[in-house]
Amino acid sequence: MDEKLQKVLANAGFGSRREIEGWISAGRISVNGQTAHLGIRVSEQDNILIDGKPFKFPNHAQKTRVIMYHKPVGEVCTRDDPEGRTTIFDNLPSIQRGRWITVGRLDINTSGLLLLTTNGELANRLMHPSSEVEREYAVRILGQVSDEALKQLRTGVMLEDGKANFDVIRDSGGEGANHWYHVILKEGRNREVRRLWEAVGCTVSRLSRIRYGAIELGRDLKQGKWQDIPPRQIEKLANSVKLKLKLEDIYQNKTHLRRTKNRNSGKWGY
Predict the structure, then answer these.
(1) Alpha-carbon distance 222 to 173, whole Å?
(2) What average pLDDT does the segment 206-214 reach?
């Protein structure tokens, strides 16, 4: 059965569909000796090369795995940084086939929750604007924020790439010169949270993502560490973006299961 090239490679864990579309546009993929084009459909009979290396259709579907990673300030989300900075991939577990696909990114000065998965279709749906998946951030502002500025942030501010706003702004208190807010939005434009605050004259002194969809950053997950998301939560996460996954097709970290059982005196904790 023929399927679009970007979907085949995404399902094999090579990246999100959007990322692979970029590879196709850049001429990095060939099919049967010809440079691939957007929209091309392929089957197991086709000869596919990625950067000159052959792609083999998997014998069986790869199990979907999703992990959360607590990104510290100072790490970048690229695989190979030309400046030699630490990347998030330096701290992630290795996988036998495919590779980790980031669900959105965080800039070098932002900490907090990053989701990574082996399922390109899941990543694509979680990031796609039509899915309207909530992202929640804790943001520390230096100085006072006027009522007028908060009103603007809720109703909409014109940025260089179009109008944007926060769906929710909650005052989280603070002392001295700094004040904390929790904000929620449903899209992932580059540095959008910072740019919104800066557009109304506010200085962001600290920023951390604490939730992506239904997945919250656990207080016990230290910076620079990762943990598997339990299968039931992955199933719910996929359902939230209208992607059906069977439990038997979801990866289970048996080591994590044993640790969870011991910690909860015989209860699995799922």
Answers:
(1) 24
(2) 96
CATH superfamily assigned to domain 134-212: Pseudouridine synthase (3.30.2350.10)
Q: Which residues are known catalytic residues?
A: 107
Query: Per residue, what are the HEC states of 177-225?
Result: CEEEEEEEECCCCCCHHHHHHHHCCCEEEEEEEEEECCEECCCCCCCCC
Q: Where are the domains of the chain?
A: 3-55, 66-129+215-246+254-263, 134-212
Mean pLDDT for 18-46 is 93
**66-129+215-246+254-263 and 134-212 in the same fold:** yes
Predicted confidence (pLDDT) per residue in 256-268, tens digit: 544 444 444 333 3
CATH 3.30.2350.10 fits 66-129+215-246+254-263, yes or no: yes
Distances, alpha carbon 133 to alpha carbons 89, 104, 167, 191, in Å: 24, 11, 12, 17
What is each CA distance from 47 to 33, 53, 61, 97, 237, in whole angstroms? 8, 10, 19, 19, 34
Give the H/E segment covering residue 259: helix 254-263
Residues 6+ away with beta carbon under 8 Å from 108: 73, 74, 75, 76, 85
Sign of CA dihedral 73, 115, 251, 256: positive
Classify domain 3-55 at the CATH topology level.
Answer: 3.10.290
H/E element, 121: helix 120-127
Residues in the chain: 270
Kindly state the tokens that stand for 123: 């990543």
CB 64 within 8 A of CB 124: no
Distance in angstroms (rounded) separating the CA atoms of residues 163 and 208: 23
Residue whose C-alpha is closest to residue 112's, from 194, 207, 205, 196: 207
Q: What is the DSSP letter of 39?
A: T
